[in-house]
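Researcher: We're teaching a course module on how sequence relates to structure. For the next exercise, students receive a sequence and then see the predicted structure as tokens, so they can try to spot secondary structure elements on their own. Here is the exercise chain.
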Amino acid sequence: MKFKGVIFDLDGTLVNSLEDIADAMNTVLQGLNYPMHSYETYQYFIGSGLRNLVNRSLPETNNDEKHIDLCYQLMIEEYSHNCTRKTKAYDGIIELLDHLISNNIKLSVFSNKSDALTKKITADLFPGYFDTVVGLSVEALKKPNPTEAIAISKKMGLEAEEIIFAGDSDIDMQTAVNASMSAVGVTWGYRLEEELIAAGAKYIINSPLDLIKIIQPNDETILAQNMW
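Model: And here is the predicted structure for the students to work with:
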């Protein structure tokens, strides 16, 4: 089966947004006199939506639902003003997207970040690259629920088996499996290769251009693929 489309995760896959997310949450925590966290710790808070990140960041003695709601609103307000201050595309991503578009591969984004922020960051950093950009609007539909991924495939006009789902977390791999798409785990994001494999990754790639060898395995001009 020839792949005709790619759905990308955003954070940890297309962009390194860790510092902007961590800085926004730490600003909220500092304002409340709560302990702050390192960038390394935030790597394990990212992936299940910003509300869950807020929950994980708060002290256990102050994480009831009402307080989480309050801190989530504070975090979103802070982050929305600074969501592209340090965030940037990973090296090789733009080159990958240019190559895929020039070869008529359809491109979309599906993130557990809020829909408004997903669209803002994608529009700011990747103007014109993606046919469909979907973030989280309904909590029940966040990854690994495959509903939105399947809806994106229909907008692309493609069957699930024609689509690669690329991401850096177990949640992304589970989403791909649940949607019957080919799961590609990327190792430059926030999770370990072992976690991606355990969650169902069909392929593992160590740099963005490696994805081309999966889509076009006979293209000898591209660097060799790195699959497990």
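Model: If you want an answer key for the exercise: Confidence is low (pLDDT under 50) at residues 220-228. DSSP finds ten helices and eight strands in the chain.
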